Amino acid sequence: MPKRTCLAIILAAGEGTRMRSAIPKVMHPVGSRPMLGYVLDAARTAGAGTVATVVGPSADAVSDYAKAAGSAVFIQKDRLGTAHAVLAARKAFTPTPDDILVLYGDTPLLTGKTLRRMRRALASGADVVVLGFRPPDPAAYGRLIMNGKRLVAIREMKDASREEKAIGFVNAGVMGFSGAMAPLLKKIGNDNAKKEYYLPDLVALANRADKTVRAIEVHTEEVIGVNTRAELALVERTFQEHARQAAMDGGVTLIDPDTVYFSHDTRIGRDVVVEPHVFFARGVTVGDNATVRAYSHLEGATVGIGATVGPFARLRPETTIGPGARIGNFVEVKNAVVDAGAKASHLAYIGDAHIGAGANVGAGAITCNYDGYFKHHTEIGAGAFVGSNSALVAPVTIGEGAYIGSGSVISKDVADDALAVGRGRQVDKPGWAASFRKQMQRRKKQSGK
Fold first, then answer.
1. Are residues 177 and 300 in the same domain?
2. Which residues pair with 279 in a beta bridge?
3. Is residue 412 packed enough to be buried (19+ CB in 10 Å), middle (13-18) or exposed (0-12)?
4. Of 175, 244, 382, 445, which sits most exposed with the smallest number of CB within 10 A?
5. Strands 378-380 and 343-355, how do they pair?
6. Cβ distance 40 to 71 under 8 Å?
7. Residue 299 domain-assigned?
8. Same-domain check for residues 311 and 216
9. Beta-sheet pairing, 297-298 with 314-315
10. CA neighbor of 350 nearest in space, from 367, 326, 330, 368
11. For the chain, what percentages of helix, strand and coil (3-state, to nearest 5) are there?
12. Do 306 and 287 contact (CB within 8 A), yes or no?
């Protein structure tokens, strides 16, 4: 790529009425990330030194997100078409960039690689470059009218002749043009039914000015725009297919790939085995040789080398599972560190805690971390044994090698290697059950019920 300056303008002012949502369209997630985030990344990957996001009025969530990603934000007060939206960011045209890319915030599968292709075309002498694709059904897309390598016009479906309607090469909407073409944007008119200013009209203006106009073909799935919940689901499915393939290419075994769901930032090492029906929410890292068993949900967690999680486990944010540790079925861990070789094999809750190396947490054991107002910490020492159905009332420390008797409620610190039993003394009354049954049966008979 020659050394050229680039401005990327992301149009994100659409209301997305067909989404039937109070959430701005571009903020709907794909792979646990707002769609806009992918487009911002693609622009940066393509070498855009400046990114401008055009938003609608009162779109605070979109504005805040774009600004946090380093984008300038411009407001399109009246939605008068795509060319009008581009001109809303005209202050970003100074100083004049070599390349200007116009992108859409609802096309999260568009890649920086494709945008670099557009920039190479501009660097090679094209004045305007349009992305096109060949969908199975061209339907209402604008047709790209080609004359050899030259893009002559973009013809909207309603204006196309019979021959033009037969064209399968259609407009994806994404456009790049040289900075020198920017003044032509002001010449785009609104002589159409909606009285709006449409960016595709730049193609006709450029041709009339004897400029070089090109079209670049991309795969259909890369330029899918999201306008409905069904299209959002389609894009999510495509994202997941790519993520699964990337995981397997990287040395991960997915027993049933179609049932495993990744986030955009999931990181998984080599020789990891992921069983069916596992969901990786944001912020998960899994080390080499680990196993994530079926029906587990992980979010904001780190799983160490050779550790085992699940089945039916839930790891919540700020959780670290150490090397070789085991988190079994129906175990929930939140804001806790489980050191190497420790295990909680079944039916436990570990919250706001540290479990030392080699410790064992029995079935039904819980850390009572919340008093209704504040969270408190539980410390379980290395090699400690917490018996089944024990409740550890935080803040509390269980010493190294200590042993907690099953069914105990522990509210005071336990010394290293000590036994702690915190339960009522068992009392047996011989014959009580038989006497009780006779008494109750007699009462029931007398009541007539």
1. no
2. 261, 297
3. exposed
4. 445
5. parallel
6. yes
7. yes
8. no
9. parallel
10. 367
11. 25, 30, 45
12. yes
SS3 222: helix
Amino acid at position 256, single letter: D
Same-domain check for residues 27 and 47: yes
d(C-alpha 10, C-alpha 104), whole Å:
5
Cα angle: 177, vertex 178, 182; to 5 degrees: 85
- For 102, residues 6+ apart whose C-beta sits below 8 A from its C-beta are 9, 11, 82, 86, 174, 175, 176, 177, 199
Q: What is the pLDDT of residues 302-343, one digit of tens each?
A: 999 999 999 999 999 999 999 999 999 999 999 999 999 999
Residue 435 lies inside a defined structural domain of this protein: no
Please check whether residue 189 lies inside any domain of the structure: yes
- What does the chain come to in residues? 449
Non-local CB neighbours of 185 within 8 Å, separated by 6+ positions = 83, 86, 87, 90, 202
How many structural domains compose the chain? 2
Q: What is the DSSP letter of 381?
A: -
Tokens 């009354």 sit on residue? 429
First to last CA, the chain: 89
**Is 199 exposed, middle or buried (CB count within 10 Å of its CB: 0-12, 13-18, 19+)?**
buried
User: Which among 297, 346, 354, 377 is annotated as catalytic?
Assistant: 346
Spatial separation of the C-alpha atoms in residues 300 and 263, rounded to whole Å: 11
Q: Are 367 and 352 in contact (CB under 8 A)?
A: yes
pLDDT digits 0-9 by tens, 18-63? 999 999 999 999 999 999 999 999 999 999 999 999 999 988 999 9
Contact 217, 132 (CB under 8 A): yes
* Alpha helix (H) residue ranges in 124-177: 162-165
Low-confidence residues of the chain, pLDDT below 70? 1-2
Residue 346 a catalytic site member: yes
**Cα 54–Cα 58–Cα 62 angle in degrees, nearest 5:** 50
What span, in angstroms and rounded, lies between the C-alpha atoms of 399 and 380?
A: 6
